[in-house]
Amino acid sequence: SQTIHQWPATLVQPVGSPLSLECTVEGTSNPNLYWYRQAAGRGLQLLFYSVGIGQISSEVPQNLSASRPQDRQFILSSKKLLLSDSGFYLCAWSGGQGTYEQYFGPGTRLTVT
Amino acid sequence: AQSVTQLDSQVPVFEEAPVELRCNYSSSVSVYLFWYVQYPNQGLQLLLKYLSGSTLVKGINGFEAEFNKSQTSFHLRKPSVHISDTAEYFCAVKRSGATNKLIFGTGTLLAVQP
Questions:
Q1: Strand ranges for B1-114 from DSSP E
Q2: Is the pLDDT of residue A51 over 80?
Q3: What is the pLDDT of residues B92-113, one digit of tens each?
Q4: Which residues 6+ apart lie within 8 Å of A61 measured at CB?
């Protein structure tokens, strides 16, 4: 069966520091991958999605970036964190053509101080 | 543009009572609809999905939803809730076109009281 991992689970970083969040998927190949951010008490905002290695699409302009160095690895990065980057970051995957549901990882709680 | 509306931000209900969480979508094309549940500090878990076929969809944990094309609704129901059903519930619709991206509603907090 497929599983999705995210780490770290929680992170406290000062303003201006770099960020690297990692997501890996097991048990499937060539998944579509997604990064979402969930601010406190709000819905999900799609940040990036990827349909293959090295293929990244950005949904909103911001100081975050994403990379997909391997088929089942998705990384969210920032060179300098802002206070507004605080939130709950969720990675998700979906299968190929004809399957539309997304499956989510456990999330990373990021607090920028 | 497509959108998903969850009018109720919070729904309080007593244990063992029935509940309905409302979801309305806007789309002029065929839709694929989903309900997810999120427990505190966890990721989202798929409850059920509607892709085609029977308009009454059964999911996990005793939940079901009914697709109503004329009312553009996909309400989630459970005949008898439990304390453990307390969570945030999100309705989502697949974006039209050649994409697997989903549009999520803002969520409804189901608060089950003893």
A1: 3-5, 10-14, 19-21, 24-26, 33-38, 44-50, 56-58, 64-68, 73-78, 87-94, 102-104, 108-113
A2: yes
A3: 998 777 677 899 999 999 999 9
A4: none
* Residue A58 touches chain B, beta carbons under 8 Å: no
Average pLDDT value for chain B: 92
Which amino acid, one-letter code, is at A92?
A
A23 φ/ψ angles, rounded to the nearest 5 degrees: -135, 130
Angle B44-A108-A13 from CA coordinates, rounded to 5°: 155
The answer to whether the CB atoms of A104 and B90 lie below 8 A apart is no
Binary contact (A105, B105; C-beta < 8 A): no
User: Considering only alpha carbons, which residue of chain A is nearest residue B107?
Assistant: A43
pLDDT of residue B48: 97
- Over 70: is that where the pLDDT of B81 sits? yes
Vertex A25: Cα angle to A24 and A31 (nearest 5): 115
What is the signed CA dihedral for B85, B88, B89, B95, rounded to 10 degrees? -160
- Which pLDDT score, from 0 to 100, does residue B98 have? 66
Burial call A21-57: b when 16+ CB within 10 Å, e when fewer: bebbbeebeebbbbbbbbeeeebbebbbbbbeeeebe
Q: What is the DSSP letter of B95?
A: P
